[in-house]
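Practice set, problem 2.
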Amino acid sequence: MEYAVEVDKLVKRYKELVALDHFDMTIREGEIFGLLGPNGSGKTTTVNCILSLLKYDKGEIRVFGREMKPSDYELKKQIGVVFQEVAVFDELTVRENVDYFCGLYVSDKATRKQYVEDAIRFVGLENYEKFVPGKLSGGLLRRLNIACGIAHKPKLIFFDEPTVAVDPQSRNNILEGIMKLRDMGATIVYTSHYMEEVEQICDRILIMDKGRAVATGTAEELKNMTKNRETITLETDSLGEEDLKVLRELPHAYDLKYEGGLLSISYSAGRNNLVRVVNYLQEKDIAFTNVHSKVPTLNDVFLEITGKELRD
């Protein structure tokens, strides 16, 4: 297995605050890797250490098998960064912005020209090349930001909240573009507060909290780390104590709540949980409505593991 990024026992302190506490992480070449954590968990510190924007106290960082050093400019040329805050020049046009950022890494004019055209085409800004940023919508501005970060064709790209405050169509275009970059061979590190995006595009996900890695895996593997596998809810005002006793003892049920006519049963496993509940109610001629079966989401996993919502 080839790794694009290896972080080993990383420690970063800010005086008395331990921002990274022997943090470990490996990112495979050619994958979209989701880095999640509540505010203050150490995500930004981790990324800044990998990019050599911060000095750290202990540990090792390797990028494509080489130790990451502030002076290793050849290695840095293989990295692209798309920050959450749009970082372009207001007085330059779309093409001029992309050309400027590409020129920081690519000196050959002919190559740079082709790379700039490729980047503009990739994000779908061909019809806006002569526009200045102030004339672009929020979604188009985000696309320009991406073009500036990837124009030099980096092998490793960091995306920090690239879809914040954009319309659904632009969001879909951005996510599709990121997956296309992965399919073209790039390795992506993706941070976002939108769990549905992370679950949609990330091959693997790391959840960190208090400077440590607390869980790593695919979305499905993370979901399997939690006790809950299914929650069934329905409305009925006809349940007695004997009914509740029977329902509590159904296979795989571990928690039951019944308040104000709303029944909720949580299960740790099982494929026919809903069938068993419905069959029992029908056998007892108990009327019920609004039946729902809910499987855990990535947000449920995050909440159980960290005790916090991602947007906290």
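Problem 2, part (b): a different protein.
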Amino acid sequence: MVAFVLVVLTLFVIPGPAVMLTLGQSISGGKRNGIFTGLGIAVGDLIHTMASVLGLSAILMTSAFAFEIVKYLGAAYLLYLGIRALIEKSTKLSVPTPEDHTVSRRSFTQAIVTEVLNPKTALFFLAFLPQFINPAGGPIITQLLILGLTFVLLSILYTTFIALVAGSVSQWLSRNQTFARWQGKVVGVVYLGLGIHMALQSQK
């Protein structure tokens, strides 16, 4: 388990789609928005963990057609979010208040859909988790669940840290009129970049 945690923490250091998405949402919408984005990503990872345990992710590994369908659905969704964010007009930076639950719920939902529709994540869990299975450590299903839940917990802690740091920057940016004219564009560019990246992914 210690080796697993160390490897996961090392992977987190490398900026990936989850990090970029959390960072963009935190800068554009504040700490709360970023935290809920991270929680949404964690829920998506939890779904992938359950799919791996049940063997459903194997379909994406063995079927090129299934992989392509999921990949392009995810890419299309990200591109849609990116284009919508870019064309939305904004005159000032609006950092959600603790009472602004609507924006947070939307970020949470979008993050779940984005993570679930990323076939690379499914393949990651299917290929990564079994490497830390101990044949003498008990039922394999139980071990996979523990490893997956540990990954999800570490992911929540890491994205929350990113959201808190980046969210603090958004408070300063809220007083910057130049950035105010570009609010939403930050997240839009991030979504477009992630969408293009996902569309160009290969199964291997």
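Answer key, part (b): Confidence is low (pLDDT under 50) at residues 91-99. The chain has ten helices and no strands.
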